[in-house]
Amino acid sequence: SQQGEEDPQALSIQEGENATMNCSYKTSINNLQWYRQNSGRGLVHLILIRSNEREKHSGRLRVTLDTSKKSSSLLITASRAADTASYFCATDPSGGGNMLTFGGGTRLMVKP
Amino acid sequence: EAGVVQSPRYKIIEKKQPVAFWCNPISGHNTLYWYLQNLGQGPELLIRYENEEAVDDSQLPKDRFSAERLKGVDSTLKIQPAELGDSAVYLCASRFGAEAFFGQGTRLTVV
């Protein structure tokens, strides 16, 4: 079973545009993380936001978290062709433990 | 540091045959995960270890799947017998702290 659901499932944009992906989850969390997966490869950690944080930045990435709506968004600014990948949100449940449950992912294509 | 190492990268077997996947996590990482990933979907947790103890294996089909993590380091995931529906990518990840590190995965094709 998957904790999160990403929206949209697929996104196609031009290089230079911004890409926004959304994630909704079901249970209370300690933190929410975003991972990237290039085709045929393993997942790579991008950014983590804790349940008491509302926004976080890392380079061209901006993550927001709304615990009242159980949702998060990932914004990639000034996208590049190299950003083409699948993006997944993952959550650690509150109450401890390293459960790390993933959503279904958003497949992003950035056209040069 | 080599990162999380998985082998083999690819495996093709006939149905009803056994298969095993191996994972060498990053040194010092207490938490180890095995995930199954179908094409176009997110990783689904099969089993999680804290050191050598399996603390979450509710999603592991125990009639055909087994896993072990001897001495709390390397781990092996086995399927016996394999079914056509087991064709997928099997991902191993390890963790110490907030960030999980993934291996490249083993792509299993059952024919």
Short précis:
Chain A is mainly β and 112 residues long. Chain A has strands spanning 5-7, 10-14, 19-24, 29-37, 43-50, 55-58, 61-66, 71-76, 85-93, 101-102, 106-111. The model of chain B has no long low-confidence stretch (mean pLDDT 95).
Provide an overview of this structure.
- The complex is a heterodimer of chains A (112) and B (111).
- Chain A is mainly beta.
- Chain A is built from no helices and eleven strands.
- In chain A, strands 2, 4, 5, 9, 10 and 11 form a six-stranded mixed β-sheet that branches. In chain A, strands 1-3-8-7-6 form a five-stranded antiparallel β-sheet, with no helix packed on it.
- In chain A, a hairpin with a 4-residue loop joins β7 (61-66) and β8.
- The model of chain A has no long low-confidence stretch (mean pLDDT 93).
- Helices cover 0% and strands 50% of the residues of chain B.
- In chain B, strands 2, 4, 5, 6, 9, 10 and 11 form a seven-stranded mixed β-sheet that branches.
- In chain B, β9 and β10 (100-102) form a beta hairpin.
- Chain B has 111 residues and is mostly beta strands.
- Chain B has strands at 5-7, 10-13, 19-24, 31-37, 44-50, 53-56, 65-68, 75-79, 88-95, 100-102, 106-110.
- Chain B has a single domain (5-110), classed as Immunoglobulin-like (Sandwich).
- At the A-B interface, β4, β5, β9 and β10 of A face β4, β5, β9 and β10 of B.
Total domain units of chain B: 1
**Second-tier CATH architecture of chain A:** Sandwich
Q: Beta-strand level of the residues of chain A, as a percent range?
A: over 45%
Rg of chain B = 13 Å
Largest sheet of chain A: 6 strands, mixed
β-strand amount of chain B: over 45%
Q: Could you give the distance between the termini of chain B? A: 36 Å
Please report the total strand number of chain B as a whole number.
11
Oligomer: heterodimer
Give the number of helices of chain B: 0
DSSP E strands of chain A, number: 11
Q: Can you tell me the residue ranges of chain A where pLDDT is under 50 for at least 5 consecutive residues?
A: none
Which two chains touch over the largest interface? A-B, 27 and 27 residues
Please indicate the count of domains of chain A: 1
CATH topology of chain A: Immunoglobulin-like
As a percent range, the share of helical residues of chain B equals under 10%
Q: Strand pairing plus helix content of chain B: what structural class?
A: mainly beta
Query: SSE order of chain A, as H and E?
Result: EEEEEEEEEEE
